[in-house]
């Protein structure tokens, strides 16, 4: 195994595309092609991190997307018991991950969670400290690579913790990119300005069943494709997140906040000894 503290930045590259990963949080904070960086650097090492805006660049959302169904309590309910989970779940707060492999054009990280372990969400932005937990063990691997065409590829592999019961979950990828004022988002079905997104509730627009989207602006352009099933977009003046997701946030669907998490229509289930794999790619348009 490769110790994650060996260096301050991991660098992967291929055919003119370069990505930089912060080994302290396993986030890609820089993705450069044609001399232009498309990423929002909120997850960069502290020396390079802006002191405004979202303090992440790229997180995996698990085991929930968005707010928990019981938004007031930051909680899900399973079998009559309450489990606290902050925005986008506890994986983003897990510090005990391992860099299991790294080459010139790839890096792979592994997370292992033991059921009922407490994961702290520090106090921030006026919200109090939160101790999160989940009643299922799981193993999650994420692998970044840059292929021979210069596309960044993400592969997420999820395995349950052998609990003899199906594990309910939601999962998503939340990369954030630099906002450019005249940027547009295009799919086969929509043509949006970033203002269109910001005019939505919580500045989030749901794009159900969309599997491909182009982010275009005068400085750069790319196409994001994925196999998660759905997508949502969040935009601020500083950054724009294009998020492949397995299901829409329960709080946005108006579901019963006290319902058993396992029964919600936006929740997937992973059985004993099963695995699920999700992929996404960012194909940079070279000008």
Secondary-structure class:
mainly beta
Mean pLDDT reading: 93
Radius of gyration: 18 Å
Assign the CATH architecture.
Distorted Sandwich
C-alpha termini separation:
39 Å
Strand order of the largest sheet: 8-9-12-13-24-20-19-16-17
CATH class: Mainly Beta
User: Based on DSSP secondary structure assignment, what is the total number of beta strands?
Assistant: 24
- What is the N-to-C order of secondary-structure elements (H for helix, E for strand)? EEEEEEEEEEEEEEEEEHEEEEEHEE
| Percent of sequence in beta strands | 35-45%
Shape: globular
Q: Summarize the amount of helix as a percent range.
A: under 10%
Uncertain segments are 1-6
Task: Lay out the secondary structure.
Blueprint: E1 10-14, E2 17-22, E3 27-33, E4 36-37, E5 58-61, E6 75-78, E7 81-84, E8 97-103, E9 106-113, E10 119-121, E11 130-132, E12 138-146, E13 152-160, E14 167-169, E15 172-178, E16 184-186, E17 191-193, H1 194-198, E18 204-207, E19 212-216, E20 221-226, E21 230-235, E22 239-245, H2 250-253, E23 268-270, E24 275-284
Can you walk through the features of this model?
This protein has 287 residues and is mainly beta. The chain has one domain: Beta-galactosidase, Chain A, domain 5. The chain has helices spanning 194-198, 250-253; strands at residues 10-14, 17-22, 27-33, 36-37, 58-61, 75-78, 81-84, 97-103, 106-113, 119-121, 130-132, 138-146, 152-160, 167-169, 172-178, 184-186, 191-193, 204-207, 212-216, 221-226, 230-235, 239-245, 268-270, 275-284. It has a nine-stranded antiparallel sheet. It has a five-stranded antiparallel sheet with strand order 5-15-22-21-18. A four-stranded antiparallel sheet has the order 1-2-3-4, with no helix packed on it. The longest helix has 5 residues, at 194-198.
């Amino acid at each position: 195994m490769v110790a994650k503290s060996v260096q301050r930045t991991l660098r992967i590259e291929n055919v003119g595309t370069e990505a930089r990963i912060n080994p302290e949080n396993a986030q890609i904070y820089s993705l450069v092609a044609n001399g232009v960086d498309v990423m929002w650097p909120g997850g960069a090492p502290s020396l390079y991190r802006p002191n405004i805006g979202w303090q992440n660049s790229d997180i995996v959302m698990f085991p929930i997307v968005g707010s928990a169904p019981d938004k007031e309590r930051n909680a899900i309910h399973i079998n009559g018991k309450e489990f606290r989970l902050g925005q986008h779940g506890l994986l983003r707060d897990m510090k005990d991950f391992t860099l299991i492999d790294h080459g010139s054009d790839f890096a792979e990280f592994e997370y292992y969670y033991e059921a009922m372990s407490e994961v702290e969400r520090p106090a921030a932005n006026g919200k109090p400290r939160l101790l999160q937990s989940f009643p299922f063990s799981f193993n999650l691997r994420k692998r970044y690579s840059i292929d021979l065409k210069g596309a960044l590829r993400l592969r997420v592999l999820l395995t349950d913790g052998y609990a003899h019961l199906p594990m309910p979950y939601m999962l998503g990828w939340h990369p954030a990119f630099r906002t450019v004022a005249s940027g547009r988002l295009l799919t086969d079905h929509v043509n949006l300005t970033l203002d269109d997104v910001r005019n939505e509730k919580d500045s989030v627009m749901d794009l159900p069943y969309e599997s491909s989207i182009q982010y275009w602006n005068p400085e750069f352009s790319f196409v994001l494709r994925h196999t998660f099933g759905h997508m949502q977009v969040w935009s601020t003046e500083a950054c724009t997140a294009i998020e492949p997701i397995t299901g829409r946030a329960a709080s946005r669907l108006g579901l019963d906040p006290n319902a058993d998490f396992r029964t919600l229509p936006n929740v997937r289930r992973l059985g004993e000894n099963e695995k699920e794999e999700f992929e996404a790619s960012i194909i940079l348009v070279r000008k």
